[in-house]
Each structure stands twice: as structure tokens, then as C-alpha cells.
Amino acid sequence: MTFLLRRALFYLITLWAAITANFLLPRLLPGDPVQAMITKLGGRLNSDAMASLYVLFGLDEKKSIWEQYVDYWGALLRGDLGLSFTFFPTPVADVLSQSLPWTLGLIGVTTIIAFLLGTLMGVYAGWKRGSWMDTLIPVTTFLSSIPYFWLGLIAISVFSVTFPLLPASGGYAAGLVPEWSGEFVGSVLEHAVLPGITIVVSSVAGWILGMRNMMVTVTAEDYVLVARAKGLSEKRIMFAYAARNAVLPSISGFALSLGFIVGGALLVEMVFSYPGLGYVLFQGIGAKDYPLMQGVFLVITLAVLVANLLADVGYLLLDPRTRREG
Amino acid sequence: MNFKTKLGLGILAFFTLIAVIGDWIAPYDPSAMSDDLLSPPSGAHWFGTTMTGQDIFSQVLVGTRGVMVVGLVCGVLATFLSILVGVTAGFLGGAADEALSALSNVFLVIPALPLIIIVASMLPSADTVLIAAVISLTAWAWGARVLRAQTLSLRRRDFVEAARASGERTWRIIVFEVLPNLMAVIASGFVGTVIFAVMLQITLSFVGVVSLSTWNWGTILFWAQSNQALGQGAWWWFVPAGLCIALLGTALALINFGIDEYANPRLRKVRA
Amino acid sequence: MSPVLEIRDLSVDYGSLRAVHDVSLTLEAGEVLGLAGESGSGKSTLAYAATRLLQPPGRVPSGEVRFKGHDLLALTEKQLRALRWSEIAIVFQGAMNALNPVISVGAQIDDVLRAHRPGLTRQERTNRGRELLSLVGIPIDRLSAYPHQLSGGMRQRVMIAMALALEPEIVIMDEPTTALDVVVQRQILGQMMRLRETLGFSIIFITHDISLLVEFSDRIAIMYGGRVVEEAPAAEIYRAAKHPYSQGLLGSFPALRGPRRELRGIPGSPPDLRSMPTGCPFHPRCPQAMDVCGERMPSLDSVDERRRVACWLEEVHV
């Protein structure tokens, strides 16, 4: 499995780069916002919390940058991301572990739906080129040119304010306690509809377009002509010969665009006050809560890398050329 | 050139014009308050007013420049970076290629938005040009990746091989033999980067990490959101700016389709 | 002998440009008909049009293709699909891309059987796949291999095995061995000819390499600028080609047997569809061109019972 090993190695390098950037940023940029925060909070910080903030943000001037770097890694490996100023005195790690499931649920599911839906529509649009499907292209281009968050705002204004059909904010109805009950799950699903549709509508266009263009390119390949000469059914040619090959670049594209899509989707969480990482990040920005913002960045990067690795596994299963020769 | 491309260029030209003359033709000072609080569109205020009576039409006109400047600056900077990294990687090959490709991929995979939010909020003054520079640093990777692949295939073509064999200097081959053949890819990368930069800048303004002292379409949306425009039914506060963004984005995407169809004839419409 | 395929006055247009002009050809049962010409001569276009594999903007404005009493050009999609591969199979040029890179060769053979022989069980189809591979001399365990794991020659053999899966009446070979080295080329063609003798199908063999046609085909039709310019038994063409273009083609390849000849190419380049010369399309490159050649196209006339030539030189002789 050299292919997967090489990819995994690359993701480790990427993770290292992200962590190191996180380490360097507060030390390189001018100003000492964290120091200011600590001064403001004053005696409310206990000595342990103070120490970890010193390690994370390099406030200890006496240590060399290398010692700071080693301490930083030590803190990370212990899962110590400092205290959140916004949710004082909750540790950042606790805030993140509460909001991560919401983000994984909402963004994970909607991204997969958008990918599958867009790819399928792209397959048809590319195969039936010149049909009515072509009118989809300008429409979806327009939709994809709208920022995710603005579409979210419009969705709220139409479906929550003008026609109060669906809830505009939160992850579940106020007053409910998170538990495995029909009422709670129903409420979660109800709250996920608007943000979910917003993310799907905004991101689906890219997949349609990419897949359509790949289908058009692949349809001119010899093996598609051979499939036709073989007298196979239209469906079989379209899926097993054309789409099966056209989807490969789409999957590599999926992996690479994930970082971008997740960025847009986090904004949707903000607009809908959805209790995921995006909303937490938004609250952190307002309070200049650097430990929290950096923690969100690390967790999102980690999630994107894991998703990338999963996409690679999918690619491996679909393209025999990446498997080891046997 | 087909209709779609012309339409895209037309819309782009329109916004460019507004970016230049927006300040002069704006009927009001965009920041000036008035007694017309939160009033819907009317003859006096085409796009209505804000909570403090500011004219939204003037805000949109004046804000166009900030959007276009960031798009242009990022487009130029990031395209330059992507040519530098992509063409070098594709042309040199070997270990240099491996390293540069890995670098571009790292930048592609790391989620840019949270990173830029952190950087922008740590900067003491996040003004337009500084933001443009920060966005450029994250926006070059996609173009570099595409350019590398194209350069790689160009490098094996006869005319490049011939130039190498005749002992031509590397930079001369790149500038005179390789770059002219990459123009379509570079152009499409430039347009793509402008889209990316405009979206990112507007998003950052909306989130509130960019200095609010200069107007752009994102700051309009920031004020609309922070004043609960939605809950008050003040649709005019956030609809015009959003539509402008979508229109500009669509125009740029249409231009890019034109470039793609020019570069890849298979995508052109079949005449039956 | 009786004809299995008759092409009558077939023309092909690409948009407003005519790529093939009123071509008539007959394929007799069990024979190998060679179709020669430079790239752009319309030889592949002709074959694709006759089998209705032409992609838009290509279309057939006029003509008839008769196979077993049907006009292929008039069949419905469903009738056509049933007839494809089971009666007319094609070995495509450049076997690299003719095989789907992401599914195993076994699955690609299986595809044909599943579409055309729905009665077969999975086991029977696998057995048939193995049988076909051994027919073309490939170890049967390669059935699960993917195209990229096979050499160019092996891939071409797989294509042939696949073409024979339903025991078709006609196999069209379009530049089947162009990418292969000379030794493998002749091995594969030799094997194909032996298979033809045992299985009894007819072959249309399309290639730019006329020396292969002289060696492996019974009859040769030479195309230039979308027209057949000469048609005769292979031996006749080799011994005494009448059309100056045929003579030029023969001069461009080294002969494998017989006396050494001087190797020379044809000066100039094949005509562009968009600016066809008036009269005989070959006249700008023809060493024996006369005034009339630039004015009118000579018709394809029989000079004896086995040979047809479209050249003013022949008209003058008559």
C-alpha cells in the first residue's frame, strides 16, 4: 500500500505545518493580545491555566524559541489547548469536544450529499450534452457564486421570518435536554434542515460542473467508443465506462477542495448560530479569544486531513492503477 | 467569443467602472447618518437605509472599489506566486518538483478561512491592502498545481526539447518557449484567484475581522447582521450587496468558461 | 463467394465538409479486405460510418450498408445494439486506450457476454473468458488483470479475444498493430489470420501500412481524399499498381519479400478537408498529372474484372 503510505506521510507533514504555523503566528505578529487578556482577567486565572497560556503563546521571554517549541508540543500532546476566554474558565479542549460532533454531523453529511448529488447530476449533464441539462449550468454557476453565508441569510429571511416554517438558529429547541429521545432527535433534524440545504445548494454546483467537463472529455476516449461498438446498454456505457473513469479526478478534487468547502460551511454555522465549531469560532473572534480560535483551526485541519485520507482510500478502491502491481 | 463570455466581460467592465467612479456618483456619504431610519427602498434612497439612516445604495457604490482592488491585487500577487512555484516545479522536475508540489498541496489542504481569520484578528490594523496580501499567500496553490501539470507536459514537447538541446538558458526557455503556451491556463488561474479573493475578503469583512473603516460589500453585510436586519424584515439591507457579489462571481465564472472552452475544444458546444 | 457486407455510395459529412465521397465496397465471405491510405484519407471514417459509430458532428447524408439483407443505416437503436459485436466486432487502434483502464480485462469480456448472451451463468461466462484468452495465447490467470498490467502486445491480443467473444461474421481491424514493434505486429496478425481460417469470419483491415496489407489481405482498396482510387487483389496491387498514389504508397514502405525496391515517399502532404483541390484530389502531388486531372474527377471504373481504378491515365489507355 505504498500509495496510502505516501499520502499518510504527506498528511503528517501538513499537520506539522499547521501546528507550527499555529505556534509561530502569535510570536511573529506584533502586539500581545493574549497578555492583555491575561491582565484583564487578572486574579481569576489559576497558576496552572496561566502556565499553559504562557507555553501556548510564548509569553515566557526567558526561554529560547526551541524550548518554547518543545513545550508547545508537550502541551498539545497532553491535549492542553489552554483556557477559553469566551467560555471562561472552560478549557478550550472541552469547548471543542462539545461542538465537534455538531460540525461533523452537519458539514460531514451535507458535504457528502452535495458531492454525490453533484457528481450524479454532472454525469447526466455531461452524457446528455446539448439537452435541457445544459441550462442547469448557468443556474448552478450563479448559485455557486453566492457566498454560503449570504444564502443562509436569505434562507432565514424567507423560511423563518417571512414564512415561519423552520427554526432559524440553534441545534435543537430551547428547553430540550440532549438525549436519545424521539423528540430531541426530531428537533435536531428540524434545526439542521435550513443550514444543511444552504450548504448543499452552495457547494453542489462545483461538483456538477467539474463532473460534467470530465464526462465530456472522457466520452471522447476510445474505450467509450469500444463500449458502444460492443452493443452494451446506454446505462452500462454511461456508468461503467464513462462515469467510472470521469469520477477519479473528481475524487482527488474532493479532497483538495474540502478545506475551502469547510470554510464556507463554518460560516453557515455562524449565520444559523449552529452549536458547531464555526459558531464557536465566531464567538471567539468577537472576544479576541486566541486560544479558542487556534484550537478550532487545529481541530478543523485535523478533520479535513482525516477526510482527505478517507477520500484517498476511496480513490484507491476505484482506480486499480494506484494499487500495487500484482 | 460566445455570448456567455461577452456577458461575463460586460458585467466585469460595469463593476470596474463603478469601482472607479463610485465615490463621485454616490448620492450620499455612505457613513453619514440621517433621520430616515431603516426605511425601505424609495426614490430618495434606492436601496433603502440602515438603522442609523445611512444610504445603502451609496454604500454599495463606494464599497465596490474595496472589493475590486482586493480582487486585482490578490489576482496579480497570487498568479505571480503560482507561476513562480508551478512552472519552476514542472520545469525542473526531480526533488525540486517533489518539494514544491508538496508545498502547494499543504497550502491547498489546510483550511484557509480559519487560518486567515486568526492572522487577520491578530494584526493590529487589518486594512484592505494588508488583507489582500494575506489572502494572496493562501490563494496561489491551486494555480501552481495546474501550471505544474501543464508545464510538465510542455517540457516533453519537441520545441522545448530542441531549445534545451541547443543549450538555451533555462530562464530564456521558460520565458520565451514555455510561458506563451501557458497563457490560457494562467489567465484562467488569474480569474479563479480573483473569485477566491473576493469571496474571502467579503467573508472576512462579514465576520468582522477586517477593519470596518473602509466600505466594501462585506462590511455592509456585517452591519446588517450585527443590527439584526433579518429579524426586523429589513431585506434591503443585505440583498443588494449579496446580489452584487453573486453577479460579480458569475461574471468571472463565465469568463473562465470562455477560457476553458478556448483551451479545451472538446468542451465547446457541438453543432448538430 | 457471396458478399457479407455491401457498402453502396456511402458519403460522410463533418458539418459542411465531405469526408467520404460515394464509396462503394463489397466484403466477400471469409476474405480479408484491406483499406489503405494516409491519415485523413477517410478510411476509418468510412468504417465508423458503416457501423454507425460516427460521433457528431459526423453524419451520413446518403448511402446504404447492407448486411444479411438489412440496411444497417436504417436499423433502430435496439436492433443495432443486438447486432453489434455479435455480428460485427471491431479491434480498435491503439489498444492502450481501447480498454477501460479501471476494470479488469475479464470484466470487459464478461460485459459483452452479459449484454448479448443473457442465458449464460456466471461460471459459463468465466469459462468462455478463459477459453478466449487461451485462443489468443494469453495465460488464463490474466483474466483478472487490469490493462495497465499488460504489455502493448498483450492488450492487443485481449482486444482480439474480446472481438471474437461472440463469434462475429465480420471483424474490423482499425490500425490494430500501429503502436507495436514489427515482430509483435506480425505475430499478432499471423495469429489473427489463423483464427480466421478456423473460425471463418471476414476481416476489414484498415491501416496506413500498405506492406502489411500486401502480406495479410486478399484484396486492397486504396483511399485518398475520401474516395477509393484503386481496388484490386493484393497480389495485383503489389505487382502492378495502376494509380500513381498506390504506387507512391507502395514505395513508402520497405518490401518484406521479393526484390529490393528503392524507398521513396510521396512528395507533399495529404489534402485538407477544408480546401480540397479541384478535379482529382491527388493531382497536386501526382508525378504524372495532366491538364484534365486538375479539372475533373475521374470515375472509379473497372479496368478488368478484378480491378477498379479512378485515374485519367487509365481512361486514356481505354
UniProtKB/TrEMBL annotation, chain A:
<keyword id="KW-1133">Transmembrane helix</keyword>
<comment type="similarity">
    <text>Belongs to the binding-protein-dependent transport system permease family.</text>
</comment>
<feature type="transmembrane region" description="Helical">
    <location>
        <begin position="188"/>
        <end position="209"/>
    </location>
</feature>
<keyword id="KW-0812">Transmembrane</keyword>
<feature type="transmembrane region" description="Helical">
    <location>
        <begin position="102"/>
        <end position="127"/>
    </location>
</feature>
<feature type="transmembrane region" description="Helical">
    <location>
        <begin position="246"/>
        <end position="272"/>
    </location>
</feature>
<feature type="transmembrane region" description="Helical">
    <location>
        <begin position="292"/>
        <end position="318"/>
    </location>
</feature>
<feature type="transmembrane region" description="Helical">
    <location>
        <begin position="148"/>
        <end position="168"/>
    </location>
</feature>
<dbReference type="Pfam" id="PF00528">
    <property type="entry name" value="BPD_transp_1"/>
</dbReference>
<protein>
    <submittedName>
        <fullName>Peptide ABC transporter permease</fullName>
    </submittedName>
</protein>
<feature type="domain" description="ABC transmembrane type-1">
    <location>
        <begin position="100"/>
        <end position="311"/>
    </location>
</feature>
<dbReference type="InterPro" id="IPR035906">
    <property type="entry name" value="MetI-like_sf"/>
</dbReference>
<keyword id="KW-0813">Transport</keyword>
<dbReference type="InterPro" id="IPR000515">
    <property type="entry name" value="MetI-like"/>
</dbReference>
<keyword id="KW-0472">Membrane</keyword>
From TrEMBL, chain B:
<comment type="similarity">
    <text>Belongs to the binding-protein-dependent transport system permease family.</text>
</comment>
<feature type="domain" description="ABC transmembrane type-1">
    <location>
        <begin position="68"/>
        <end position="256"/>
    </location>
</feature>
<feature type="transmembrane region" description="Helical">
    <location>
        <begin position="235"/>
        <end position="259"/>
    </location>
</feature>
<keyword id="KW-0812">Transmembrane</keyword>
<dbReference type="Pfam" id="PF12911">
    <property type="entry name" value="OppC_N"/>
</dbReference>
<keyword id="KW-1003">Cell membrane</keyword>
<dbReference type="InterPro" id="IPR050366">
    <property type="entry name" value="BP-dependent_transpt_permease"/>
</dbReference>
<keyword id="KW-1133">Transmembrane helix</keyword>
<dbReference type="Pfam" id="PF00528">
    <property type="entry name" value="BPD_transp_1"/>
</dbReference>
<keyword id="KW-0472">Membrane</keyword>
<dbReference type="InterPro" id="IPR025966">
    <property type="entry name" value="OppC_N"/>
</dbReference>
<feature type="transmembrane region" description="Helical">
    <location>
        <begin position="67"/>
        <end position="92"/>
    </location>
</feature>
<protein>
    <submittedName>
        <fullName>Peptide ABC transporter permease</fullName>
    </submittedName>
</protein>
<feature type="transmembrane region" description="Helical">
    <location>
        <begin position="99"/>
        <end position="123"/>
    </location>
</feature>
<feature type="transmembrane region" description="Helical">
    <location>
        <begin position="182"/>
        <end position="215"/>
    </location>
</feature>
Automatic annotation (TrEMBL), chain C:
<protein>
    <submittedName>
        <fullName>Dipeptide/oligopeptide/nickel ABC transporter ATP-binding protein</fullName>
    </submittedName>
</protein>
<keyword id="KW-0067">ATP-binding</keyword>
<dbReference type="GO" id="GO:0005524">
    <property type="term" value="F:ATP binding"/>
</dbReference>
<dbReference type="InterPro" id="IPR050388">
    <property type="entry name" value="ABC_Ni/Peptide_Import"/>
</dbReference>
<dbReference type="Pfam" id="PF00005">
    <property type="entry name" value="ABC_tran"/>
</dbReference>
<keyword id="KW-0547">Nucleotide-binding</keyword>
<dbReference type="InterPro" id="IPR003439">
    <property type="entry name" value="ABC_transporter-like_ATP-bd"/>
</dbReference>
<dbReference type="InterPro" id="IPR013563">
    <property type="entry name" value="Oligopep_ABC_C"/>
</dbReference>
<comment type="similarity">
    <text>Belongs to the ABC transporter superfamily.</text>
</comment>
<feature type="domain" description="ABC transporter">
    <location>
        <begin position="5"/>
        <end position="250"/>
    </location>
</feature>
<dbReference type="InterPro" id="IPR003593">
    <property type="entry name" value="AAA+_ATPase"/>
</dbReference>
<keyword id="KW-0813">Transport</keyword>
<dbReference type="InterPro" id="IPR027417">
    <property type="entry name" value="P-loop_NTPase"/>
</dbReference>
<dbReference type="InterPro" id="IPR017871">
    <property type="entry name" value="ABC_transporter-like_CS"/>
</dbReference>
<dbReference type="Pfam" id="PF08352">
    <property type="entry name" value="oligo_HPY"/>
</dbReference>
